[in-house]
Each structure stands twice: as C-alpha cells, then as structure tokens.
Automatic annotation (TrEMBL):
Keywords: Methyltransferase, Transferase. One of its GO terms (molecular function) is methyltransferase activity. Pfam families: Methyltransf_24. GO terms for biological process: methylation. InterPro entries: SAM-dependent_MTases_sf. This is Methyltransferase. Gene3D superfamilies: Vaccinia Virus protein VP39 (3.40.50.150).
Length: 218
C-alpha cells in the first residue's frame, strides 16, 4: 500500500480497505473493455509521476489496470481513485450485448465484483482505491477532503449533458500542470460536442487527440 493511498483510505473509507481479504476467487476475471490501453494513459504516468489519478467511469477496470500497472512498475507513491457506480449507464441498458456484461445477480448488477477481482487478480490493490459513487457526488466527496488530482481520465457517460457535467465538476479539481484525458473522442457526437464546447469556453480549443482519446494540459 502506498502512503498516498493509505492517507486517502483513512479519510474517505475511515480506514476500512474495500480490497482487504477480498474473495477474488469467487468471481471471474474479465478484462473486456474499450480504449483500456492508450499512449496517453502511460505517458501521463511516466511524464507527470502523479500521486493522485482520478478515473471517472471505470467499467471492469481495464484502463485502471493500465494506469496502476505503470505506477507500480515505476514504484510511485500513487493511487488511482476509481469512480463508478458499477450500475451501468443508459447505453449499457439499451444495448443487449453491453447489458449482459452488467452481470446481474438477483436483479442487481455485480459489475463491481468483476472490477475488484480484476484489480486484486493483477495485484494492483495497493495502487487503486474504489469510490462507488456517481461523478457529481464523488467530486463533492473529494472536494470535502481537499483532494486534487494530477491526472484525470473522463470515461463516464456518452451524452452531451453527462460529459459537460463531468468536465465542469472535474476540470477545477485538476492541479496546474496536470492533464485531463477524455475517452470516446471524437466518434461519440455528444462527447465531442461537450469537449469542444467546454474547452472553447476555456480558451483551449483546439486540443490534442488521438482516437479514441483526447488530452488537455492545465
């Protein structure tokens, strides 16, 4: 466990580690995901050597694993705060294939357990701290504890309103010199419009992108 993770664990989780004695063998690992490995993710860790990374929208943890694996390989005192409800979004409920991945048990998604078993199975629990909340409430919690991020990865909702909300909540929580990475750009129209509109307001458009991600340094 890193010192940074331990500090946040004591504040946010009151010292109760959600991965402690986690029964990973009861759940099947499944690394299915989208855009889980991308140069922007590894470059952010290698170049900035962050202590706090926030990922908004985690799914099964593919990109969380990419970020945390690089942290671990570099022996950084760093943590990925993984923000998700693990209940799916409207697009997961409207798509038959994605709906099945929510892994329902008695009418309730068990997707969190897929994520947790992936993290524990990869031995990365010392660099990951889950925060099972929606984006807005998670931002309120972290602001309450004066947590700012060196790197933020936005991979939540795909509609304009959700993405714009994420950007308005999280951009102010990025430290100067940090980087915000967005997923699903530019091929999801709502995602593209939200990023373009928000960063036009910030005077930072156009910005760099390499499908399916974009990045903006602060």
């Amino acid at each position: 466990m890193t010192g940074t993770r331990d500090t946040l664990l004591k504040r946010i989780w009151r010292g109760q580690d959600p991965f402690l004695n986690y029964p990973a063998l009861l759940y099947r690992q499944d690394r299915q995901g989208w855009g889980s490995s991308h140069p922007y993710l590894t470059e952010a860790i290698e170049a900035l050597r962050p202590s706090v990374v926030v990922e908004v929208g985690v799914w099964k943890g593919g990109s969380t694993i990419s970020l945390a694996s690089t942290m671990k390989a570099m022996n950084l005192d760093a943590v990925v705060i993984a923000v998700d409800t693990w209940l799916g979004a409207w697009d997961h409920w409207n798509n038959d294939e994605w709906f099945a991945h929510l892994n329902f048990i008695h009418g309730y998604p068990a997707l969190y357990h897929t994520f947790a078993s992936n993290i524990v199975g990869e031995g990365l629990q010392g660099h990951v701290l889950p925060l099972p909340l929606d984006s807005v409430n998670a931002a309120y919690v972290l602001r309450n504890y004066d947590v700012q991020a060196d790197v933020i990865h936005i991979d939540g909702g795909h509609d304009y309103g959700a993405v714009m909300s994420d950007l308005r909540e999280w951009w102010p929580m990025l430290k100067p010199g940090g980087v915000l990475i967005g997923d699903d750009y530019p091929h999801w129209p709502g995602v593209k419009k939200a990023f373009d509109d928000f960063f036009t307001e910030q005077g930072r458009f156009p910005f760099e992108f390499e499908e399916p991600k974009c990045r903006i340094f602060k």
